[in-house]
Q: What sequence folds into this?
């Protein structure tokens, strides 16, 4: 899961010299998101807005993984990051709006 990957990703980021923290990797409680989802619920658009929000946050997570991937020369680190990137991509492809799961080496 994404949350179980977090400690390893943070360690790899630090080792690679990339500035990343828990906020960078996962969506923390955000009052703007809460308000957006509350408004969407009231307008009977919760599912649509939730999927869009989740998709955006997963894409940001992938960008962070790619940044760390590009900053490291370690084959083992690249393999781990590629696997995590692909896992996030699989989550994106299960969303009704689609997505891609290509590894960071191809993006």
A:
């Amino acid at each position: 899961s994404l949350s179980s990957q977090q400690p390893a990703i943070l360690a790899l980021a630090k080792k690679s010299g990339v500035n990343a923290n828990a906020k960078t990797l996962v969506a923390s409680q955000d009052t703007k998101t809460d308000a957006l989802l509350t408004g969407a619920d009231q307008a009977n658009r919760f599912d649509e807005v939730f999927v869009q929000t989740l998709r955006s946050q997963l894409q940001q997570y992938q960008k962070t993984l790619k940044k760390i991937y590009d900053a490291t020369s370690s084959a083992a680190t690249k393999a781990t990051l590629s696997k995590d990137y692909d896992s996030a991509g699989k989550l994106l492809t299960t969303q009704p709006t689609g997505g891609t799961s290509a590894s960071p080496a191809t993006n």
In short: The radius of gyration is 15 Å.
